[in-house]
Design brief:
49% of the residues lie in helices and 13% in strands. The chain is of the alpha/beta class. The strands form two sheets. The protein has a six-stranded parallel β-sheet, sandwiched between helices. Strands 7-8-9 form a three-stranded mixed β-sheet. The protein binds nicotinamide-adenine-dinucleotide. One of its GO terms (molecular function) is 3-hydroxyisobutyrate dehydrogenase activity.
Length: 298
């Protein structure tokens, strides 16, 4: 059993913190949303008065916030909690942010004697609920080993991609591919549908054929092919289009800095941007399916 300060209780952080409570840890929680905090307190977590209060006297600090600016502001800015974290604690940031911010956090926290790892996740809200996430870590091997027991209560795989920031680079490579697969799967299903195929039957065929992929298997974007996924719930919950847009922006920035060629990443970034500007920013990212609706009757 560990003492953990958990900050950011949204679609992902909420169920992750709940799993830590269920595993018997003492979990102090903080979020800007009172409702999110109340939901965790109902699960047995301890309510913190502030972010600084959440990290007082803990062994681990875990943050799960939307983007780099939220993470920088939580730890490093004027009201930041950098000075409130016990020196013996290990900070684990599981938000998807840019690698440069992750490296900056490692350096700045190190200056006050606090250790840090970046540990973004894959597996979606279903993985967060079932405790089967994949953690993609960057940082010192010894720190990742120390985190392993706690991460294992929220996930089933813990990888070390390399030094600080490497977890974030691996994560955005994965999410760029995910965006491409989701758009490609949506396009193929809409093509079949527009030509009289039942999307359920087409999905079954492609699942046993060479088009098989994760989005088709566990996150089908066409409503009611699978139940219990965001597409069958009006694209509510899950992973917001605007968060995917953010991740594609991170991938494109990283490509530009390194000279990598990401032609498909660029294309899918423009598709998600258009989709967001059409009013779908808060929907689940599988709603890109609607972006491929036929434009005219055949
Ligand atoms: P979310 O918007 O549902 O939750 C974010 C939470 O952070 C909110 O409850 C918000 O109130 C809180 N918050 C923001 N600023 C805060 C602050 N300064 N102090 C305390 N709380 C603060 O987002 P999410 O879907 O849970 O995603 C979180 C991170 O995980 C993102 O970086 C996202 O890219 C990544 N991610 C999401 C998924 C997914 O399927 N949703 C999957 C993998 C990774």
């Amino acid at each position: 059993m560990a003492t953990i300060g958990f900050i950011g209780l949204g679609n992902m952080g909420g169920p992750m913190a709940a799993n830590l409570v269920k595993a018997g840890n003492k979990v102090k929680v903080f979020d800007l949303s009172d409702d999110a905090v109340a939901a965790l307190v109902a699960e047995g977590a301890e309510q913190a008065k502030s972010a600084a209060d959440a990290v007082a006297d803990v062994e681990f600090v875990i943050s799960m916030l939307p983007a780099s600016k939220h993470v920088r502001s939580l730890y490093l800015e004027e009201q930041g909690i950098k000075g409130a974290i016990p020196k013996s604690a290990l900070v684990i940031d599981s938000s998807t942010i840019d690698a440069a911010t992750a490296r900056e956090l490692a350096v700045e926290l190190n200056k006050v004697g606090v250790r840090f790892i970046d540990a973004p996740v894959s597996g979606g809200t279903a993985g967060a609920k079932s405790g089967t996430l994949t953690f993609i870590c960057g940082g010192d091997e010894a720190d990742i080993e120390e985190a392993r027991a706690v991460l294992g209560q929220m996930g089933k795989n813990v990888f070390r991609a390399g030094e600080h920031g490497a977890g974030q680079v691996a994560k955005i490579c994965n999410n760029m591919l995910l965006a491409i697969l989701m758009a490609g799967t949506s396009e193929a299903l809409q093509l079949g549908k527009a030509n009289g195929l039942d999307p359920k039957v087409l999905s079954e065929i492609m699942l046993q054929s060479s088009g098989r992929n994760w989005t088709l298997e566990v996150y089908n974007p066409c409503p009611h092919v699978l139940e219990g996924v965001p597409s069958s719930n009006n694209y509510q919950g899950g992973f917001q289009v605007d968060l995917m847009k953010k991740d594609l922006g991170l991938a494109m920035d990283t490509a530009e800095q390194s000279g990598a060629v990401t032609a498909l990443g660029k294309l899918v970034q423009s598709l998600y941007s258009e989709h967001s500007s059409e009013g779908s920013g808060k929907k689940d990212f599988s709603s890109i399916f609607n972006h491929f609706e036929p434009k005219r009757d055949a």
